[in-house]
Design goal:
Layout: H1 7-44, E1 48-50, E2 60-62, E3 82-84, H2 114-123, H3 142-154, H4 165-168, E4 171-173, E5 183-187, E6 194-202, E7 205-209, E8 216-220, H5 224-228, E9 230-235
Helix pairs in contact: 2-3
């Protein structure tokens, strides 16, 4: 014969069961938001900043998984609130660039050697007329021309007499060792002894006040006439 629970006892059992179930549901409902927030905290990795009262300019970072360069702190006036900070909302710190270096100016060109200066000055009078006993600036004889050029370039007066110029200043130069600016002397041209002078300009050439027909002109030291009358050469500087 089957046993049946009395109706009144069954009703009390069902009431107890309902109360227990309601309590379980209530516990689940209370614990659910906390679990959800914990999961969200794990996924989003928020950054919190707490500022102590009166220290709003020096916040302390706490619990940050982002680098210090990407995070910044915000606080409220009372210094006791906690604010969430997003690294992407913080402006990047600008790094000042060093001013570009100013390039140094190009150095001034070196002055030409003395010999080249002598040649350049002498050639500026190419074509000027031959004038007996003239020493410039509008006409020259041979020794007047060399006196005028050396005086203006070097400030040395070697005199006007052609026979005295080899001994006035400078050093002796052997045949073929001439350099631009050297003085070259010739003998027995129109008179006995040293009688003509020219300025060597390079490549076997010389500039000189030759005669009334040619004036200041350029000739070859190796020409038959001048090679046969060659006397010597000096270098003033």
């Amino acid at each position: 014969m089957a046993w049946h629970m009395p109706r009144a006892q069954r009703s009390r059992w069902l009431n107890v069961t309902q109360v227990v179930l309601l309590g379980v549901v209530a516990l689940l409902a209370i614990s659910a938001p906390a679990a959800t927030y914990a999961k969200k905290s794990s996924d989003d990795t928020p950054v919190h900043v707490r500022a102590a009262a009166g220290e709003g300019d020096s916040p302390a970072l706490e619990g940050s998984s982002e680098s210090a360069a990407d995070a910044a702190a915000t606080t409220v006036a009372d210094g006791n609130s906690w604010d969430r900070v997003a690294g992407s909302d913080v402006p990047k710190q600008k790094v000042a660039k060093a001013p570009a270096a100013t390039p140094a100016p190009d150095p001034a060109p070196a002055p030409p050697p003395v010999g080249e200066a002598i040649v350049a000055f002498a050639q500026s009078y190419l074509g000027y007329p031959y004038v007996w006993a003239g020493n410039g600036p509008y006409g020259f004889d041979c020794s007047g021309f060399t006196q005028f050029v050396i005086l203006n370039v070097l400030g040395i007066d070697i005199g006007h007499a052609v026979a005295g110029q080899p001994y006035a200043a400078g050093t002796w130069v052997d045949w073929g060792n001439w350099q631009p600016g050297d003085l070259i002397f010739f003998a027995n041209t129109y008179d006995v002894g040293i009688s003509h002078v020219a300025i060597y300009i390079g490549d076997g050439l010389m500039i000189h006040a030759e005669n009334p027909s040619t004036g200041v002109t350029i000739s070859s030291v190796y020409s038959d006439y001048y090679a046969s009358h060659y006397w010597g050469a000096t270098r003033i500087a």
